[in-house]
Amino acid sequence: MQILDAQKENKIVPLFRLGFRVFFLGGALFSCLAMLVWLLSLRGMALLPGVSNPIWWHAHEMIFGFGLAIIAGFVLTAMQNWTGIPGVRGWPLALVSGLWLLPRLLMPLRGELNDLVIVLDLLWLPLVAGFLARPVIQVKQWRNLFFAPLLMFMMLLNALSYYAAFSHNWLLAERVFTTAVLAIAALITVMGGRVIPFFTARATGTDKPDAIPALEKLALGSIWLATLGWLMLPRTSLFNGLLALVLVIAAVTHFVRLSRWNNKLTKDIPLLWVLHIGYLFVPLGLLAMAAAILNWGITVSLASHWLTAGAMGTVILGMIARVSLGHSGRPLELKKPMVIAFMLVIIAGLVRALLPMLAPGLTRMAYDVSALAWVMAFGLFCRIYWPILTQPRADGRPG
């Protein structure tokens, strides 16, 4: 890096030197706060004075507030590696992260139907999509361009969720939120297929298994088809059966896909086993979703938590722990409390998704235990990674 570039980099607050910093830390902090508010709201405390439907708020904020923040941080950071063009930083990054944060802070006070909240919340994802598309188009790396339309699709789902709240159409809200959850699960499978086998091979000194083209097309194609089908297909017995079949095909193919990634070699490497276990939640969640659409003794809400509290929470915590170390110039070595955080987030997912299925009478306890385990897991991340994400790289390089 040139001296001039170094001087320019040093003038930027470290938190805004690359997307992973502000969005990983902000998303993790927000998830802790939002989960605590949700837990206390269930206990009858009036902590959301402006919100007319706290259930809508909880689902919306954990998907579009927490989940999309982490995704934005990841792709804004990864795009620099993929294209070789410096990532967004400085005031543009501060602007887009501020546009993400303001609706999170305003919604509990002004409510989900407030015009300012809605406008701000619909602005930040198109900005992220633009930041991603520009370098991809510049270097003609079309493989990674799909992130931009995916983020625009999520923005449209976000807009639909506000429309559902405005019209009090809670069936539409559930359909939109579930579609968004399936889309995030599909993104996990896309990125997981790229990085999990690679990370595993490199850390264990083994060969990365060759992908089977037919399996990859069937696994990824079926989960994206299920995502679109959940949003667009009418709810008739015929279409529900077809959608359930697609979900089962997706689940089976992702089980097979995961089984080929040398899982047994990861048992002593927390940064690996957390990703493998997190990915396992995806096919389990897809099977639960198939059962839910067929009304086989499980609700859509409960089934979706295999993908949210389970897959999304576990994979996100594993990825942000690893990416934050690598992109801050530090060795991939975990402190023991972070391993405890991994176990806590897995417990959060299992308790929230499995316990109400096995013992419906303990559902309330499942909410409490899962929420507290989540808060402790992401709270530990915030405590450990605060200095890592708010200070310059350990090796002195930019980013």
Molecular structure report:
With 399 residues, the protein is mainly alpha-helical. It has 2 domains: 10-168, no CATH class; 178-399, no CATH class. 76% of the residues lie in helices and 0% in strands. It is built from 15 helices and no strands. It has helices spanning 3-10, 19-42, 54-83, 91-110, 115-121, 124-139, 147-167, 170-204, 213-232, 237-259, 270-293, 300-304, 306-326, 336-358, 363-390. The protein starts with a helix and ends in a 9-residue tail after the last helix. The model has no long low-confidence stretch (mean pLDDT 95). InterPro entries: NnrS (IPR010266). It comes from Oceanimonas smirnovii. The chain crosses the membrane at residues 20-42, 62-79, 91-110, 116-133, 145-165, 177-199, 211-232, 238-259, 271-294, 306-325, 337-359, 371-389.
Provide the descriptors you would attach to this structure in a database record.
399 residues; mainly alpha; 15 helices; transmembrane helix; transmembrane; membrane; NnrS
Give the helix/strand layout.
Blueprint: H1 3-10, H2 19-42, H3 54-83, H4 91-110, H5 115-121, H6 124-139, H7 147-167, H8 170-204, H9 213-232, H10 237-259, H11 270-293, H12 300-304, H13 306-326, H14 336-358, H15 363-390
Helix pairs in contact: 2-3, 2-4, 2-15, 3-4, 3-6, 3-7, 3-8, 3-13, 4-5, 4-6, 6-7, 7-8, 8-9, 8-11, 8-13, 9-10, 10-11, 11-13, 11-14, 13-14, 13-15, 14-15
